[in-house]
Design a protein that fits this description.
With 532 residues, the chain is α/β, with parallel strands linked by helices. It has 16 helices and 18 strands. It is 37% helix and 14% strand. The strands form five sheets. Strands 1-11-3-6-7-10-2 form a seven-stranded mixed β-sheet, sandwiched between helices. The chain has a four-stranded mixed β-sheet with strand order 13-12-17-18, sandwiched between helices. A three-stranded antiparallel β-sheet has the order 14-16-15, sandwiched between helices.
Length: 532
């Protein structure tokens, strides 16, 4: 990898991302809030429609459920784990005479902290380590169009923001499990003032729901073939999708950069983004390894994206299940997901064969849509670009369920629970009722039941305590029996050897008139041999 190639790739990727960010902004907030934030106590802070907020794109919210607990405001920034002090903050608690410190935040609780100094993920992680059930981050800037906030806080148009920020994952949020909200400054100031001044608990409710349009759940996954986070999910999801049958309708989406808006194509049709783009710079993808000279290129990612769009169009769009599509994804990840084989024709043909995909039909679809050469538009890729702009997709991978974005890690368990929460009451398939609480959803779906231990808890496919104990006793009995048999046999062998020695050197029987003394050999002048 050369320094020039890396810098060119990084520059081109940053160029596309920056230009894409401008285009997304015009379509509104890209996190599509599907939750509710409400103050239950005191009643004077209750709002019928709840409080405006933003959801974190990390953490694992309990879809269909809620968290209602007292909120505690910490005056630390929650950026340094060592500085988190559970005995600080508001409202005040009783003081322990032994330590002269306030009692720690009583669990369960929701922690509230000001925005700033570090990432959202870092604050949520430290709140989680402190024992919080959820975290509310209070924005520290007013919206520029919110005159009430500016007047109340004494802010100015020089120190404001046009839109609320997206609580995106910084790439390290996989270990964060608690939910997190960002509350607008104008609302946060009221709650903080209540907690500080009146010294009484404020109870906040964080709740999540998904739209229930009918008895069928529609969901879509936005990703690209080079993205790693969703690969395990895509390998394992087919069994669940098949089990739910026509209760689900899936739409796979491929995220393509608009090369024209990203200025990868000049006015005279030249490609300025090197091998990141196809069609003379019209359709682009970032370079997975940031090396324009080696490995997988952005243009190859675009080509594989178009191939998957066509496979779904002909082998999944009709029923929304797409068994053949999932087979293709599984075989591709198994055989061709590497720098050497990603765009290798022989490997792709092998995947076609094993997934039972009609190669000619797919290749014809790719060509009929506009192809990937020359300065010509591709109808299927244009459709994906338009859909991404309407949805406001920014972070990959992103899952939408009934048009609402799913939060949390993209695992079979998380998606399964979110999908099941999207059904109307009384319309959930049996597999949802059986496997929602099971830790190993895939095994539950395959077996038709959730394996539990003697306490009724899901074992996630592990061995129950009863089975483990029985097996351990049987193994002990087996080895004990084998040891006893060995000891008996060894003892009998030893007895036989002793009897043989006694019979040879100290015979007990002789002639009728002979009387032998065991010490006769000593009296014979020691002429008798002991070995002959």
């Amino acid at each position: 990898m050369t320094r020039v190639s890396v810098s060119l790739a990084a520059a081109a990727a940053a160029w596309m991302l920056g230009m894409a960010g401008v285009s997304v902004k015009a379509f509104g907030t890209p996190d599509n809030v599907s939750s509710r934030l409400q103050v239950q106590v005191p009643k004077n802070l209750f709002r019928e429609k709840g409080y405006d907020h933003r959801e974190a794109l990390f953490g694992t919210p309990p879809y269909g459920g809620s968290i209602a607990q007292n909120v505690y405001y910490t005056d630390t920034d929650l950026c340094d784990p060592s500085s988190v002090n559970p005995s600080s903050g508001y409202p005040s608690r009783s003081v322990d005479p032994a330590t002269n410190k306030q009692d720690p935040w009583p669990s369960p609780f929701i922690l509230m902290v000001d925005r700033g100094s570090c990432s959202f993920v870092q604050k949520a992680r430290n709140a989680q380590h402190a024992g919080a059930a959820g975290v509310i981050i209070a924005d520290n800037l007013c919206l520029c169009n919110d005159s009430a906030c500016l007047n109340m806080t004494g802010g100015s148009f020089l120190n404001c923001q046009d839109t609320e920020p997206i609580m995106a994952d910084d790439g390290s949020g996989g270990d964060v499990t608690i939910p997190a909200f960002l509350i607008f400054k104008v609302d946060a100031s009221v709650i903080v003032e209540e907690v500080k001044t009146n010294e009484r608990p404020v109870q906040i409710e964080m709740s999540w729901s998904l739209p229930h349009p009918d008895s069928k759940v529609e969901y879509e996954l936005w990703t690209v073939p080079s993205e790693d986070v969703s690969k395990d999910f895509q390998k394992q999801w087919k069994d669940v999708a098949t089990k739910m049958g026509d209760k689900l309708y899936f739409t796979p989406r491929q995220y393509i950069y608009d090369g024209i808006k990203s200025r990868c194509q000049t006015s005279d049709g030249r490609n300025m983004c090197f091998n990141l783009c196809t069609n003379n710079g019209r359709y682009c993808a970032t370079d997975p390894d940031n090396d324009l000279e080696h490995g997988i290129t952005g243009a190859e990612v675009v080509k594989e994206s178009l191939r998957r769009i066509c496979i779904w169009k002909h082998f999944g769009e009709k029923d929304g299940l797409g068994s053949v599509y999932w087979d293709y994804i599984f075989e591709f990840l198994k055989r061709c997901d590497s720098d050497d084989f990603f765009s290798n024709d022989e490997c792709i043909n092998d995947v076609y064969k094993n997934a039972k995909v009609d190669r000619q039909r797919v290749e014809q679809c790719m060509e009929d849509s506009g192809g990937l050469i020359n300065n010509s538009p591709n109808t299927l890729l244009d459709r994906e670009i338009d859909a991404a702009m309407r949805k406001g997709v920014v972070v990959l991978p992103t899952m939408f369920i009934n048009s609402a974005p799913m939060r949390g890690a993209l695992t079979v368990h998380t998606v399964f629970n979110a999908v099941c929460a999207g059904f109307q009451s009384g319309s959930k398939p049996d597999v949802c009722l059986t496997c929602t609480e099971c830790s190993d959803v895939n095994q539950c779906v395959q077996k038709g039941f959730c394996q539990t231990d003697s306490t009724g808890r899901s074992t996630g496919g592990g061995v129950t305590k009863k089975t483990f104990g029985t097996t351990l006793l049987m193994m002990c009995a087996l080895f004990g029996t084998a040891g006893y048999i060995h000891w008996r046999k060894t003892r009998e062998d030893m007895r036989d050897q002793v009897r043989g020695i006694l019979a040879e050197y100290m015979p007990l029987e002789g002639g009728e008139d002979e009387v032998h003394n065991p010490m006769d050999f000593a009296r014979s002048g020691q002429s008798a041999s002991l070995i002959s």
